[in-house]
Design brief:
The protein is α/β, with parallel strands linked by helices. It contains 4 helices and 9 strands.
Length: 197
Amino acid sequence: MNKTKVAGVAPLREKAQLMSASEIDRTLVRLAHEILERNNGLEGVVLLGIRRRGVPLAERLARKMADIEKVTPPVERLDITFYRDDFSEITQKPVVQATTAKFSVRGKTVILVDDVLYTGRTTRAALDALLKHGRPQRVELCVLIDRGHRELPIQANYVGRIIPTSESELIDVRLREVDDQDCVVMCERIPSNSPQP
């Protein structure tokens, strides 16, 4: 089993691969069809990827929709760093990336796109960040993985796969645009008293 260690974070051990590159691709095709069906096409639809892995997922969804509808929806990126409710508690401060030019979602149907839905706090932060771009007509949420353990009353409209997890398990979505590979892996935290190799 592979082991990963990040500064300030308990080391992780890979337990199982949950999705391959082809399974991710097929899931995105299905999600693209679901979004198109529910919205009766792409009129007024904007895909908004939540940094980091939500952005390449939104771009891939847009390409799938273009294959189906022959129209590509606009894709924007959303950096929620300063909207997180745990920002002051993060030991390793994240680097805030430059965002794309100002865009407006006024009167649009916004599809927020993220890799994993967990407590709901990332989505809440995204909704706060979204408000600086205008008042959308409707906001929907699309996630590749829903792992449960919600702390806020947030539910995704489009879900690639529901994967129940324990509190000690993590879902690691790896995308070639960020990680040079496509897969979804379940990991578990290695207890601090476990013997290290």
